[in-house]
Amino acid sequence: MSKVSSKCKVRSEMEIDDPEKNPPGSMYWAKVGSHPWWPCMIYNSPNGEGFYRMLKSCPKYHVQFFGPVVERAWVSSFNLIHFKTRKKLESQLQDLCKAWPGLKSKYELKVPNQRLKWWDQSWKEADKAYCLSLEERVNTYGRLNAPPEKHALKAEEEAELLKMMDSVPLTLDEETESIETFVQVEKTRRMLLNANLNELELDNALRIQWPAFDIATKRSYLSNKLEMLNLESEFKMDHSRTTRGAGRKSVLSTDESSGMKPTPKANKSDKPKKQKPREKLELDLEIHRLIASPAPFRFQPVCPVCEVYSSAPGQMLKCNGPCGRIVHPRCMRYKEPPKPENQRPEIFKCPQCLTQKYLCAVCGDSSKKTNTDDQLLPCQMKGCGRHFHRGCLAQHPGVVLADTLSRCPAHVCATCCLEDPDNVVVDPNRPMLQCVRCPRVYHTGDLCTPAGSVEVSLSHIVCPAHFSSQLSEDQHYKTQWPAWCFACLKAGADRVFCKTCPFNYHRTCLPEDEQVGVSEESTFTCKNCRQHIEPRYAQVVWAKIPFFRWWPCEIIHARNAPLNIFNLAHPEGTFLIHFIGSGEYQWVCRAQTFPYECGLNTSAAVLAKSNSKKDVAFNLSAKMAPKVHEFYVNYVWKRGIPLRSMSATRLSDEELVPLSTPETAIALGLTPHQDTDAVQLAEALSSFQQVVSNQYANSALEKLAKQELPETKCDCAKSETETHCSKETECRNASEGIECTDQVCSVLAHNPSVDCGNRPFSVQPSLAVFRTTNRGFGLKVLENVKEGSFVVEFMGEVIGVEEANRRLEASIAARAAHRGHQGSTSQSRFTSETMPTTYLIRFTPELVIDAEKLGNLARFVNHSCEPNLVAKLWNVRGTLRMGLFALSPLSEQDELTLDYQQANLLDSSFVGNRNICLCGADSCQGSLHLPSSFHCPEKAKNATPAVASKSNEKGADQVVEVQVVEEPKSKRGRKSAGGGANMSQLLSAAASVDVKPQKKVVAVPTVGPSPKVVETKPSKKSSHDDFCYR
């Protein structure tokens, strides 16, 4: 062996050959073939092979390269150099050249000019990743989470372990997998026995009966029953036969007296096929989500100058002139200072209306009066006030223009008008999604919204047409042209190409409507681009990214993107696509996609003949894409949206029901709303065990909830005016949150049968659970309730703060895993009701109430930024109890709401910066950033639990002590005891990370018998309280 190679081997063995010292996330420079040294990080292989291979010659690591296009490779340890930022790379290579002169060509840094921009972007991205911890790096830049290798067990070993796990509850993923397997197997078996059964009703009946099964029965339906222990089983359960006696029988099994024979072993045709459910979930996932959970809409005006929505009252003023715009007064630029009275809201006018010198709503210029096209025309629609140049309206749909402008583009949906211009419907009362930079508007609900739109507020966007010019200058999003003509579908020379989309034609095939602006040059702007016809969310398109062929894809809305894909850097105007038939996603722009039907009968749709993984995935995608497209078109038709540019076979309601999720079927009117609500309500009520008092995890925690009662009685019986206990009579018990008994109340001690007026927990109004419009289930009151009256007690399992943080972290991790693996079978079954969530509310500084498994109806109380309930701690017979009291008078059928942040109720649904508040209140903050954990106070000696923790109420004193606690940085990426990365902690940190670190407000009940009155001060705001989804 040569001296050089031996040195290389020694160096690699000392530094890179130990996989324990190089876990996923470790950064290196990698040399692959003739490519330059490229920054990368060690990461798990997407096919589950891990990240390390030990070959005969040398070890290999699986790496993921940084850069705009995510690429992976197995790289020998000889071709890896530790990453120490871009500045130190050249010195590293020089040192290696001196040590091994024979490999000088290998250690030279040569970057081809055509890849220089990509390389620069890659090392800049790597420099940012180098500053992160391993956990943060993997979470931010990792694309796949490969499952760890599992140790296989024999049948007898598994049976022994399963017997020990009969009392261990299933995880959320296991519960989801087992119920789906049970429903599928039982439904198949029963439909074979009785073909007249209603499949939908049978499905619902099986799901209702599922909670009655014991743990052993549920676990028997898992494909890997020892997944929790990271073990693999060789013994597979036959779901068609009973193996655990009576506990394994289905509740819906037929009566033995009917002469029915025992269920035979299911043959191969009865067994559920693995590919079928996967195809169904990938086919209908995005369109189902957009229909069942559309984007929330609430009018939030955006200043047209700074493009920012301000939520604070009084920061934005409405112009009292013809335009009627809502703007920031400080953003207005007046040529001459207006009168001071102009700042008053009732007479405020913008510069245009004040001077009556209006600007065009398209180009932003005033009238030049040089020709007819430059004349400003006001829109004649009532309350519009917009002005346009005649020439600026040429490429905008929905315009009614003759001598006057009867209707401008701001009154009809641009998408619907482009699809069906002859049947335009104008509904002034229907809310519209407005573009901030142009007069175009769109119907709410995502299906009309152009893909790539930037959300500025819940009612305003910036449509992608305004980003096309800057995207065309980006080399990563340059226009991709196919090799065929879009008219004759054949290849050939002498073609003209659209500048901003893949459309191209032979000059002899160019349609008449495309000949506008075509010169001797080889580029032009097609009709679709001139009219700004954009792709839409959930639409099926052909997409092309560098080094890959044209692939059928489904456009995904950003809010439905996996968390790690969502966090990838991407310019404004791009949108996310999902490669059908795979688990891959990519950010692209309009210049890289074209409609699905335009690619049929071309070379793009030709199946691959090789057996490589990429070609097999493409063939699967090509077979699934027609179904995806057919479902999308039918759902859009069913929604009542015009769609002439696409065609598909019309499916009846009966054909759509089996293909739809329950939420989608309800939204489309395919199934009765009441029937589905009744089934889901039964499931919601059966998902937890109702209790009549708090259940403590252990006796030590129960002692912490005990509170000594006063040794003396109140003085209310000595009052000369009225013998009544209340705050109005300055009763000590009522003021300090102590429920009256004959031990502490002088009125009851004198006459126990009298109602002293301070026994709130003894009487509760009638309540009912109901389905809300877009927030799952809620709780409403069935009778009138006075202000300050007791409504309901929040009950559940009382646990410690550390245990509560552990449960919260696990729930956040489960939600993050769902977002990161939406293509997997088990994770895709989550709905708004089955998504993992928490019901944790701060009880005392040491205790938390968890109502997830044990609780009462109070767990259904939803959040609101303008709540009608407030949480208070009361001392009831020496034990602390959490009550919800009315902040204002409640009428019959009013929904009960609570401010989660003020009550310190942590719901994993609201942790993180991607969750939007749907309360609909006028003062809604738009997004509720709850902390990712409860603050753990130091356990002081002889510390007594809190007497009361009362929040702000109208006309009452404030008795909540609010401590501002900054979350330690170590909590954002915690490590396990062994020093390795815990996946649940990684996912939890990823889901709860905020864009801007900020101090978190934690409401901690005041400790001691005499609570102090502490004023809750809002955090400092800037000049105006700005909020922008961008």
TrEMBL record:
Residues 267-278, 1014-1030 have a biased composition (Basic and acidic residues). GO terms for cellular component: chromosome; nucleus. GO terms for molecular function: methyltransferase activity; zinc ion binding. The keyword Nucleus applies. Residues 300-356 form the PHD-type domain. Residues 765-901 form the SET domain. InterPro entries: NSD_PHD, PHDvar_NSD, Post-SET_dom, PWWP_dom, SET2_Histone-Lys_MeTrsfase, SET_dom, SET_dom_sf, Znf_FYVE_PHD. The keyword Transferase applies. GO terms for biological process: chromatin remodeling; methylation. Residues 24-75, 537-599 form the PWWP domain. The lineage of its organism: Eukaryota, Metazoa, Spiralia, Lophotrochozoa, Platyhelminthes. Residues 238-278, 1008-1030 are annotated as: Disordered. Keywords: Chromatin regulator, Chromosome, Metal-binding, Methyltransferase, Nucleus, Repeat, S-adenosyl-L-methionine, Transferase, Zinc, Zinc-finger. Residues 913-929 form the Post-SET domain. It is found in: Chromosome; Nucleus. SMART domains: PHD, PWWP, RING, SET. This is Histone-lysine N-methyltransferase. Coiled coil: none annotated.
